[in-house]
Structure prediction request, 211 residues.
Amino acid sequence: MLVDDHAIVREGYRSLLQKQDNLRVVAEADSGAEAYRIYKEAGPDLVIMDVAMPGIGGVEAIRRIRQWDKAARILVFSMHQSAAYAIQAIKAGARGFVTKSSPPDALLRAIAEVMAGRIALSPDIDHELAISRLADEPSAVEALSPREFEILRMLLAEKSVEEIADTLHISVKTAANTRYQIRAKLGVASDIELVRLALRQRIIAVEDMEG
Prediction:
C-alpha cells in the first residue's frame, strides 16, 4: 500500500514498484487517517508511507496501524532527512526509513530488507542517526512518545490545541496537557523556544516557516 498526499509522487513510485516481478500495489491512501482505514480493509503485506501529511501524520498513522496489527510491516519514504523523524517512526513501529533523495534501488533494497524482517535505513539517515548520537545536544525528541511527537509536529505547524484535539479525536484538555508535557520534556518554556529547538534539530527547516 502506498501512502502519500501527493498523487504525482504515488504515481512515480507505483510505476517503479510495478516493474518488479514480485511487487504489486494493492491500495493507496493520501492521508494518515485514510491509511489506517484502508489498511484494515486491504491487509497489505507492506506499507510504504510518507511522514509529513496534512491532518494525522505518518508517525501517528504508523502507531495506529501497529496497534491494530502488531505484525504490520511499514517502510517510511520521506523527504525528511532528520534523525528525529527516523527515531520517532521506528519507535512508532516502522521497520525502515528511506529518504526521497535516495536512488530508486535504495527503496527496492529497503523493501527486500523489511520483507525479510530486518530494519532498513537509507545511508543518509544512517549518517544522520550517527551524528545525532555524537552531538553535544542529544536528540531531545527521543524523550517524546510517538503521540507526543505528532502533537509537537502539529504545534510547529501552528495548529491550536483545539485543532489538534479535533484532528486526533482527543479532548482539548488532553491536548493542552500534552503540550505542557512536551515543553517540560524538551526543557523549553515557550512556543518560540520550541521552534528554536526544532530548527536546531532539523525537525523543521526555515523554509517550512516561510509563507
Summary: The first strand starts at residue 2 and ends at 3. The longest helix spans residues 172-186.
